[in-house]
Write a structure and sequence with these properties.
The structure is a homodimer. The radius of gyration of chain A is 19 Å and the shape is elongated. In chain A, α3 (107-116) crosses α4, α5 (147-162) crosses α8 (210-218) and α6 (171-178) packs across α7 (182-194). By secondary structure, chain A is of the alpha+beta class. In chain A, a hairpin with a 5-residue loop joins β4 and β5. Chain A has 8 helices and 11 strands. Helices cover 44% and strands 23% of the residues of chain A. The A-B interface holds A 58, 60-62, 64, 66, 85-90, 114-118, 121-122, 124-133, 135-140, 142-144, 179 and B 58, 60-62, 64, 66, 85-90, 114-118, 121-122, 124-133, 135-140, 142-144, 179.
Chain lengths: 219, 219
């Protein structure tokens, strides 16, 4: 992917602004598991995902986690450059969920262009609004959905992302995505297994009845 | 308050852009309880709070509510103009919590200026980031705080907003702020009463031990 592929508004930028973004950009390849950004003290820059998959999540003081959203190929990570907006008063962590290749635009170059370009600033607004929408979706899930529904939804989403029914994932890791303790996950997965929806083995959850899981989720 | 008081960047706008915002603006006074904005199908415009207090909240399909944040004098409500950004994919309700006087900037005028003015667009980014931060704070409260802590925090905040220890509020209304059923609120308030933290009477919660409530909240 070219830099311009990440910005649908690329052709509306002035040549000088395009040059400023292009000149500062650098590439980085990180193995699965790398923590790329650690809260607002970091000013990592804008991450553009060329290949792979990132996870944005938050951490409690006690070390519990919950996934806010995923960033896939072609996505832009804004919160790794959150230091450029003083009104962002929360701490997001960003980690690679697969081996990932990125382009990074340093915060300073991006901020300078954004301050002068209404086009880039409006585009940035749209990116932030899209992330905001994902967090609102999550908030609604947590508030109004039961845990069995959220777990069913997570297994289906994970299966779509991985392109397989056999998910290599621990109960602990599922808990970190959903913001719940491991025991709660294990109990519900065992219930799902007793209903014939999944088959459990060591660090593996196999989906055996996709249709019922889907109904479960949508209830 | 003048229109310029709502926009710290007013003097950086061009005279033409200032005129466009000023020409479109109109005043509205609404009594307590008025629903000013009802999800993304409405395109109410930007609400500027001159006097009074607004509440932004979401509704579940079953009619449960939770307060996202309050807007006080001098605050700008962006989501009442959410139709101007296509990436905003969630439904926020806005209602007056007190008799409120507003200025309303029609979405079209605001959007036109924002598309041409990097200054206004960057300012709008900051407003959205501030609301995003409030929602992230709420998400963290829901995920990591126990209900007794959230209730203690709510009573203290309400008391600060109203300037009194005697809160005229039903258990039902507290539930709508916190996203919990009335019975859960009643049970916890009775527990607080048994601990001497509050005194309950018809549609009234009186704070009797502010210090312990504060400790309770911060646990």
């Amino acid at each position: 992917m070219e830099l311009s592929d990440f910005f649908p508004i690329w052709n509306q930028l002035t040549p000088a602004h395009r040059a400023m973004l292009t000149d500062g950009v650098f590439r980085r390849a990180v193995p699965k598991g790398t923590v790329l950004h650690n809260g607002s003290m970091d000013c990592t820059g804008l991450l553009l995902v060329q290949h792979g998959q990132l996870r944005a999540y938050i951490l409690s003081e006690e070390g519990r986690e919950i996934t806010l959203y995923r960033l896939l190929e072609g996505d832009i990570c804004l919160f790794s450059a959150s230091c450029m907006m003083r009104s962002i008063q929360f701490e997001v962590m960003i980690a690679a969920e697969r081996d990932t290749e990125l382009w990074i635009i340093p915060t300073d170059s991006y901020k300078t262009v954004m301050e002068h370009s209404a086009v880039l600033s409006n585009f940035t607004n749209e990116v932030m609004a899209a992330r905001f929408s994902e967090v609102m979706w999550l908030l609604e899930q947590i508030l109004w959905k039961r845990f069995d529904q959220r777990l069913a939804g997570f297994l289906l989403e994970e299966s779509a992302l991985e392109g397989t029914d056999v998910l290599k994932i621990t109960h602990e890791a599922i808990g970190s995505h959903l913001g719940n303790p491991r025991e709660v996950v294990t109990r519900m997965l065992r219930y799902f297994q007793s209903e014939g929806l999944v088959k459990l083995s060591r660090a593996t959850v196999e989906i055996t009845d996709r249709e019922t899981l889907r109904r479960q989720y949508a209830i």
